[in-house]
Amino acid sequence: MKWSVCTTGMKSHSLEWVLQVFSRWRAEGAVLDGLDLWIGHVEDYSKCCIGGLGKLAERLRASHIHIPVISGYTYFSDGAHGRNRDLEEFRKALQAAEILGARAVRTFFGHLPSHRASPELWDESLSALLQAVTLARAAGVEVWVETHYQTFADHPQAVLELMSAAGDENLHIIYDAANFHVDGVDPLAALSVLYPFVRHVHLKNYRWDHDCWYRSQPVSALSRHGDVDNISILRMLQQRGYSGYVSLEYFGARGWEALVQSLVECRSNPA
To answer: What is the pLDDT of residue 268?
Structure first.
């Protein structure tokens, strides 16, 4: 099991700032192997820094920082124009993955909860997603759909239906326990069912306010005061022989303290 941090929660900072903080964390003893790179960081770096992504790839290799996934924001569900736009955005993320040696590109599937997706919308969105999968396969890159509330991949049964309908071994999932909790789904039960499709894990924890989401309070990933039992999640992953990345994911100023505390807690695998 390897550890990484998602840069999607650091959108207000440059990638240069992220890399400096990452180096400091390592120097302080954090056991970190890589970064999930937000596509916005990649694009900004490419525009602003001499040498672009080729130079970034050299820098990452020299610093022994692996990039398991490029985190895009595509959904493949918002009408014909939206699907075409998403395919173009996916191509950009795919190019970055090739240059930076990432195993996969992250996507979402659907911009609505699964129970609100009509059969027609589901089929049209799946067709667009599979176009992306085909593009990725040609480049030697995988596609990872993140399990997330308010998307078509918000429930284990919906994810199983997606994987069955796709029938493509180049399509896998990013398992996020906290995202399942938002919809009242038991994260451990979801992991047990979906494990064969898991290639990456996002780890975070909250005291979630189901009535008013913005009042939800982030806590450290392994805190026993959070809603999600991530210690049991990690234990199950170890028991199943999981060897991929577990990536800490927190957002904004409210999540920063929880992220830093999580790095301390995860210095040695507690499972």
So the answer is: 62
